Structure formats: C-alpha cells, structure tokens
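Support case: oxa(dethia)-CoA complex. Customer-provided input:
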Amino acid sequence: MKSVVIGFGGALPQKCIKNDELPASLNTSDEWISQRTGIKQRYVISEGESTSTLATKAAKEALGFAKISPNDVDLIVVGTTTGDYTFPATACVVQKNLGINNECPAFDVSAACSGFVYALDIADSFIKTGKVKHALVIGADSFSKILDWNDRASCVLFGDGAGAIVLKAEESTDKGIQYCKIYADGNYTDCLVTSGGVATTRDAGVVTMKGREVFKFAVEKFYDSFQELMENNNLTIDDIDLVVPHQANVRIINKLIDMLKIDPRKVVVTIDKHSNTSAATIPLALNEIKNTIGTNKNVVLLSMGAGFTWGAALIRM
Ligand code: UT7
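Agent response - structure generated as follows:
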C-alpha cells in the first residue's frame, strides 16, 4: 500500500511585515536580514487569526484540490508547537471547523520545525497498515506569538503560516511516499527551547536559540539524512528532481546545495517570501509548486527543528 499525495493547500495571515517595516528599536536592517538569512518579509497573524484558522484554511484548500469531502478524511495529524491551546489538539479544532463528524482520530505532533515530516511519517504508517484511506497532514505554526520581539537575533527569522496535504491509500502504484525516516537527539534540547512552559512559568514563554549551533546541526543532518535516503533507495543525485528543505536560513540551503553538488534549480526556496514558518515551511513550499511539480518526479523533503528533531522523506509525485 502506498500513500499518494492527492491534494495541496496553504494559508498565510493577512498581515505582511517587510524587513524595513520592522520596529526601529530592533536596530536591524533589511541588508543584515537579507544577507544573513535570505528573508525579505514574514506574515504575522492578527485579531481573529490563529494556528487553527490557518490550518483549517490550508486543509480546505487541500481537500478541494483532492476533490474529496471533509467526511472522507479518516485521520488528521497536525505538526505544530503553537496550537491554539495546550489541549484540545489543533487537529480536533480543525476537525470541528471542517464539519467532520465521522469520529476519525485527530491529534497533534510536537516536533517543532520537523512537525510536518513527523506527521507525514505517522500518517504514512497508518495508511500502510490499512487503517486509513485518506489522511489530512498539516504543518501549522504561529511563532509570532512566542517570539521575544525585542530579540533581533531570533524575532526577525520567523513568521506564521500553514500548509496541508491529503494522502490517499493506493495499491499497485509507483507513486507516493517511497521512504520516510524521522530522527531525534534530545541532548540538544537547550539549543532551541522556549523560556517558559507548564513546569516553569505556566505559560508558553518565548523562543530562545543558540543560532550558530542550530545552523551547524541543520547543515550536517540535512546532508546525512539525504545521503541515507539515497543509499536506501539506490538513487544518485541525478535521480532527484526536487528537494524541499525546511526554510530556516538560505545560507543553510546553499551549503546543502554545495555539499550535495545538486543543481540549485532543483532546490525549492521560499524563505524570502514566507520566512521560517516552522512546521509549515515544507507544506507551504509544496503548495507553491503544486502546479509545476509534474508527474513521476522524485521529491525529497528535509526537515530539522528543536529537540533536535529531523527527518527525510522521498515522495514520487
Ligand atoms: O528552524 C530552526 C530555527 N532556527 C534556525 O534555523 C537558526 C539557525 N541559525 C541562523 O540562521 C544564524 O545563526 C542566525 C541568522 C540566527 C545568525 O546569523 P550568524 O551569521 O550566525 O550571526 P551571529 O549570531 O554570529 O551574529 C553576528 C552579528 C552579532 O553582532 P556582533 O556580536 O558581531 O557585533 C549579532 O549581534 O550579527 C548581530 N545580529 C544582528 N544584527 C542586525 C544578530 N541578529 C541581528 C539582526 N540585525 N537581526
């Protein structure tokens, strides 16, 4: 049984903040942010918007693309660390918003920026075991709510958004998820961590980050997990049609391009427009390219986030 991608969707908040619209008190500049990160702008939620509203919008679009009705969905998995509540899960809020009343399981996965690839692997496993026919897999985050807006080293990097795909169980097909492997190393929890939590401040706190450590780790794990994916699938770099890496810093992506010696035109970059939307970067990027991917293409997804968590997937579209 294969999990075939049959729908894509994306959602961004209404409000867009360009680099030169950031508060002067941050003492930053469009030049610094563009050169060091590739980011030109970020979208930030306002009144009436939240992780669940973005996730719902992306999900509706993905269901529309897939031409299936909400009650055909048998599983909802949302990768997020900025859900509207500690509980219930954002996936349950999305289930309600979509009017799904078939009692399908719905839950969130906490793997920070790797949330979407983690969610994908879980949904794929449900499909492979025959439990599920249609799965809605979402990556959604609103980091603007957990940023220290006085810390220029972190707040300029992130934005809000959501992306979704629909997976369908299909037999006898070359398409679909060929490989997905997720990883974690909890020894690095202090490198990218919120300053609060249930156990300490009883609130979410704000993002704190050892930027250089995260940068180095991301480059290393993107490369290692990519090589493992190619070895496991007997592929060479020429067999790969597209790479969709997590969008944290364009310099991380450029290092990967150099190390892999891959044609840069095969590597999808959206960080300039979207910034780092955490679990949403990969599905939002997929949504951007949905009409140009074509068929029989080998697409690699690479993620890396707090934990540290990381993952690699190979999908034949
Ligand atoms: O999804 C995972 C989430 N996080 C990441 O992926 C982050 C990965 N790390 C990075 O992308 C980079 O390490 C950063 C973009 C965070 C920082 O870039 P860097 O080239 O490693 O800069 P740095 O931290 O070494 O700082 C260099 C200088 C410092 O000034 P001094 O000490 O040299 O005078 C910083 O204070 O840049 C300064 N700086 C800024 N200046 C203007 C840091 N942030 C800013 C800013 N505007 N926004």
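Residues 28, 32-33, 36-37, 113, 152-153, 156, 192, 209, 211-212, 214-215, 218, 248-249, 276, 305 surround oxa(dethia)-CoA (CB under 6 Å).

Case will auto-close in a few days if no follow-up is received.
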